[in-house]
Write a structure and sequence with these properties.
binds NADP nicotinamide-adenine-dinucleotide phosphate, 307 residues, globular, single chain, Dihydrodipicolinate Reductase, domain 2
């Protein structure tokens, strides 16, 4: 299937282009970018022009930041194209519901991807937890914002999510692997005095079985990076590390892949299945937890952040 990639920035270059290039399902047929291009691929600077000029391209994959994404997604759906969305699927829940409704009404595929759910050991963690009684779960997602988001101003602007941009990846895993629903009961948001979005956050959750569930996200971690979820159950302790690429049960480890490896090939393989089957996949639970953290969160002003 032919796909057009929109927004040739960090994630398009690092993950989408290699995943499409190596996939048996996909052919990168066009790009839409204000400044980027891919060698040998027809380049457009305007989405409308691409949609008009290339009716043969039935699928559009959007790699833009969340705030501009809605207008692009709606334009593609209105032009009868299937749409794949980077995470988070939009800037607000209401726009995601609007896209979902538009896609279903038009009989088109809309896929709100959560790349961390496609990490190597997430399915195994889900299977292991399925019949265990949870007593405590801790998420620790600490990374260096300068390393992963160099010069990206949009993450500090309203709708950019701040530290929830990586934090929502942890929440996408959590909502996938736990058999029970969670909701946020308390949050603390540490916001640099010169920015609009948090550089760190801590969250507490209600778990229907009474387990103690909490999360800490921090963008100020230099040196080793930490993307871990530890689940203590009556049947043992599970630890997911490297963003879900590695898993240990009571200290016995499985998984050797590097963080992020294999995730985007799995997303594109799933998109191919969704289009073939005429289905949508739009799960907004990770985003609901983030929206509730912003609603409930106690703001604490912290030291200014300079890139
Ligand atoms: P980025 O490099 O800052 O931006 C991606 C591209 O979006 C830009 O190159 C630009 O494309 C386009 N763009 C930016 N602002 C725009 C605007 N206002 N209007 C129209 N187009 C605009 O961001 P990124 O890191 O790739 O992240 C994009 C999305 O991928 C985010 O939702 C992020 O959460 C997700 N993601 C990022 C990573 C990562 O490691 N960075 C990992 C997983 C997921 P053109 O210049 O080509 O027009």
């Amino acid at each position: 299937m032919k796909v057009a990639l929109v927004g040739i920035g960090k994630i398009a270059v690092d993950q989408h282009i290699p995943a499409i290039r190596d996939s048996p399902d996909w052919d990168l047929a066009a790009t839409v970018s204000r400044q980027g291009a891919v060698d040998g691929v027809e380049a457009f600077t305007d989405l409308g022009e691409m949609l008009e000029a290339r009716p043969d391209i039935r699928v559009v994959s959007l790699c833009l930041p969340p705030v501009p994404r809605f207008d692009y997604a709606m334009q593609a759906l209105e032009a009868g194209r299937h749409v794949m969305l980077e995470k988070p699927p939009g800037a607000t829940l209401a726009e995601c519901h609007a896209l979902d409704a538009a896609a279903r009404k038009a009989g088109l595929t809309l896929y709100a991807t959560w790349h961390s759910r496609a990490a190597d050991m997430v399915a195994a963690a889900k299977a292991w937890l399925a019949d265990k009684a949870l007593t405590r779960l801790t998420v620790t997602w600490k990374e260096d914002v300068r390393r992963w988001h160099p010069g990206q101003d949009w993450i500090w602007e309203p709708g950019g999510l701040g530290v929830f941009d990586p934090g929502i990846n942890a929440l996408s895993i959590l909502t996938e692997i736990l058999p029970d629903p969670l909701h946020v009961t308390e949050a603390r948001l540490d916001v640099p005095e010169n920015r609009q979005t948090p550089i760190a956050a801590s969250l507490g959750f209600h778990h229907p079985g009474g387990a103690e569930v909490s999360a800490v996200f921090d963008w100020r971690q230099e040196g080793a990076q930490t993307w871990e979820i530890e689940a203590v159950t009556e049947g043992g302790t599970l630890k997911l590390t490297e963003g879900g690429a590695h898993m240990a049960v009571d200290g016995s480890t499985s998984g050797t892949a590097a963080a992020l490896s294999g995730e985007y090939p799995r997303l594109y393989a799933h998109m191919a299945e969704l289009v073939r089957d005429g289905r949508c996949d739009v799960d907004l639970r990770p985003m609901t937890l983030v929206a509730d953290a912003f609603t409930l969160g106690r703001r604490v002003t912290v030291a200014p952040f300079e890139d």
